[in-house]
């Protein structure tokens, strides 16, 4: 069973279109993330949700709108796609440790969704 | 200054060699540190956590120097299968933001 699954794996679309990427985790984790990995392979955090609540939003253009219907799902919708949006988008999840200062545990990543904007 | 910095490499080493990677971080309040491994066109996966006292897992040794704000990864007796990009990861902040370094590419040559 896949722990963190993303769909679609590949997405090729034209500039100006709107597209969505879906992510689901079956690990029972309470925290989910979206990361963007560009052509230079730099993995940059975009958003983080804890129990459906947005906790990190890293200066991402508001064309990107995450949605978490429940703690097992975190979807990413992108409006008005631009060439610079071409990248691999990784979803990840982790379990927050309730001990003070312990933070979250290991991040488990999905296989990535490769977006190409033409 | 980037939050987490690494030498991008590539490091090209022969099989059996020992290779070390360093990583520096800018936030002195960072709480947890990790090394992840990413194979070409795959997702990152946890290699090992880095503990204050240093820790070892087989051929891999991780060290943390809080005073100088850097962590290191040592790989002994390199194998061809060690070829990958090694990502330094730092967790910090009230909401436990997890930040990845740019990665160091390792190529082990027969």
Structure in words:
The complex is a heterodimer of chains A (118) and B (110). Chain A has strands at 4-7, 10-13, 19-25, 31-37, 43-50, 53-57, 64-70, 73-78, 87-94, 108-109, 113-117. Chain A is mostly beta strands and 118 residues long. In chain A, a hairpin with a 5-residue loop joins strand 4 (31-37) and strand 5 (43-50). In chain A, strands 2, 4, 5, 6, 9, 10 and 11 form a 7-stranded mixed beta sheet that branches. Chain A has a 4-stranded antiparallel beta sheet with strand order 1-3-8-7, with no helix packed on it. Helices cover 0% and strands 55% of the residues of chain B. In chain B, the strands form 2 sheets. In chain B, strands 2, 4, 5, 9, 10 and 11 form a 6-stranded mixed beta sheet that branches. In chain B, a hairpin with a 4-residue loop joins strand 9 and strand 10 (97-100). The radius of gyration of chain B is 13 Å and the shape is globular.
Q: In summary, what is this structure?
A:
The complex is a heterodimer of chains A (118) and B (110). Chain A is mainly β and 118 residues long.
Which labels suit this protein?
A: 118 residues, seven-stranded mixed β-sheet, four-stranded antiparallel β-sheet, 11 strands, B: 110 residues, mainly beta, six-stranded mixed β-sheet, five-stranded antiparallel β-sheet
Chain-wise SSE layout:
The complex is a heterodimer of chains A (118) and B (110).
Chain A: E1 4-7, E2 10-13, E3 19-25, E4 31-37, E5 43-50, E6 53-57, E7 64-70, E8 73-78, E9 87-94, E10 108-109, E11 113-117
Parallel strand pairs in A: 2-11
Antiparallel strand pairs in A: 1-3, 3-8, 4-5, 4-9, 5-6, 7-8, 9-10, 9-11
Chain B: E1 4-6, E2 11-14, E3 19-25, E4 32-38, E5 45-50, E6 55-57, E7 60-65, E8 70-75, E9 84-92, E10 97-100, E11 104-109
Parallel strand pairs in B: 2-11
Antiparallel strand pairs in B: 1-3, 3-8, 4-5, 4-9, 6-7, 7-8, 9-10, 9-11
